Amino acid sequence: MLPEKESMGNTEEDKRSAFERHKAALVQSFREAREAGQRVRLGKRTSNLFRRRRADGARTLEVSGFNTVIEIDPVARTVDVGGMTPYDAVVAATLRHGLMPAVVPELKSITVGGAVTGGGIESSSFRFGFVHETVVEIEILTASGEVVLCRPDNAHSDLFFGFANSYGTLGYALRLRIELVPAGPYVQLTHQRCEAPETYFEALAASCGEERARGGAASFVDGVVFREGEMVRTVARSCQSVESVSSYRFMRPFYHSIRERGEDWLSIEDYIWRWDTDWFWCARAFGMERPWIRFPVGLLGGLNSRTYWKIRHVYENSRLLRRIGPGRGKEWVIQDVEIPVDRAAEFQHFLCGRIGIFPFWICPAKAYEDSSRFPLYQTDPETLYINFGFWGGLPSGAEPDAHNRLVETKVQELGGKKSLYSTSHFSESEFWEIYNQPAYRALKNRYDPEDYFPDLYQKCVLG
Ligand SMILES: Cc1cc2nc3c(=O)[nH]c(=O)nc-3n(C[C@H](O)[C@H](O)[C@H](O)COP(=O)(O)OP(=O)(O)OC[C@H]3O[C@@H](n4cnc5c(N)ncnc54)[C@H](O)[C@@H]3O)c2cc1C
Q: Do 174 and 26 form a contact (C-beta atoms < 8 A)?
C-alpha cells in the first residue's frame, strides 16, 4: 500500500500547481478566441464520438495539460483528475491503492470529462449509477471565460447537475473529483445462458438486487445477446486470490469466452478492459479476428480502442474509402439506449426482429442515490434500466436513416432514453421535449447567455 495521501506529481513539479498553470493559460487563450469572435474546440487527441464533426475553422484549444491524475486520497476514496484524462491512466493509478473509480467506461481512451458529460455507463452501474453520479466536484470553464467550482451543495449546483449530457455546450470540465471503491486484484466471472428474453431480464434484475444487497467490494453485472434465443448474463465479483487467470489480451477475443465457459477468472485490469481489446466485437470489421492480421497487430500493441479509432478516422475522412469500402450503401446504426427493465424484453424482440444487429451488449443501470437530479438526462431513480448497445451497418433503405429513426421512436414508446454520442435524427421539438428544454435554457441563460457555444440540439443532432 502507498502513503495515506499521494500527490501524483514527479519530484520537480507538483501536479496541482501545474494544473493551475495550465488552467491560467487555457483561460487566456479561450478569452482571446472569444474576443476575436472565434469559435473554439477541444484539442483532444482521442475521441469516442460517432457523429461526424464539421471542420468549421474553430480555434483548437491546447488541453494536453489536463490529461493527468492530480491526486488520490485513499482515505476519502476520491481521485482528482484533469478533465481530459483517459480512464486507463486513472485506473492504473488508483489500482495501486486497491481502489478503482466506481464506474469505469469500458474503452481505455474515454476521458473522465467526456464520460461525465456523455452519460458513461458500465457493469457496475447497477450499483453506482451512470458515471456522472460518481462525481464529487467539477471545475468548469464556462463561456464567459470564468472557471467555476461546481458541487452538489454550492452556488453552482445547477451546473453540477446540468453538466451530465451537456456534451461541452455549457462549458468544459478541467478538473473532476470522482469517487473510488475498493477492488481486489482479481475478478471471478460466472456466465449464465438463457433462451427467453422475459426470463433473462428477470434473472438479470435479480442478480442486480442480490449484488446490491451483498455490498462490499466491487461487483459487476452485464450480458450479451448473441442471437435471438441465445443470451448470456455475466456476474463478476472482485476477489483477493485465484488459482489461475485467463487472458484475452492477444489472440482470443473475450466475447467468445463467455459463450464457451461457465466460469472464468481475470485480473482486475483485464476485467476492466475486457471490451477494449476487440472494441467489444466491433474490431472484427477491421479483420482483427483473422489470425494473420491479429497476430502482428497484437505484437505491435495495437489491439485497443485507440487503434480502431484511428482506422475509423482514416476511413471516415477518405472519400474514396467511403465509396469503395465495406460501408458503402450502408446506414450505420451505432446506438446505446436505456430501457426500463419491465419493457426490456419488448425492446429486445424489436431489436432482433426489426434491426437484427448481433451481438448486442446488455448493461443494467440504476440511480446511485434515491433522488436523481440530473435535468438533462432524467431517469426514474426507482427503476432499473437496461442499456442496449448495438453497433453495426445495415443496408440503406429508400428513406435515409430509417433504422435509426425506428429505434428512436421505439425507445420513446417504451419510456426509454437515448444517449447522444452518436447520430440522432429527432425533430427540434421532439428533442427538446425529451432533453428538458426549460432546464437547459435556464442553464444557458446563466452560463452562456450569448450562446457562444452551440446548443445541445445544434451539436448533437445537426452536428
Ligand atoms: C462503440 C461505442 C460504444 C460505447 N459504449 C459506451 C459504453 O458502453 N459505456 C460508456 O460509458 N460509453 C460508451 N460510449 C460513449 C462514450 O462514453 C461517450 O461518447 C463519451 O462522451 C466519450 O468520451 P471521450 O472522452 O472519448 O469524449 P470525446 O469523444 O472526445 O467527446 C465527446 C463529447 O464530450 C465533449 N467533451 C469531451 N471532454 C469534455 C470535457 N472535458 N468537458 C466538456 N465536454 C467534453 C466533447 O465536446 C464531445 O461533445 C461508447 C461509444 C462508442 C463509440
A: yes
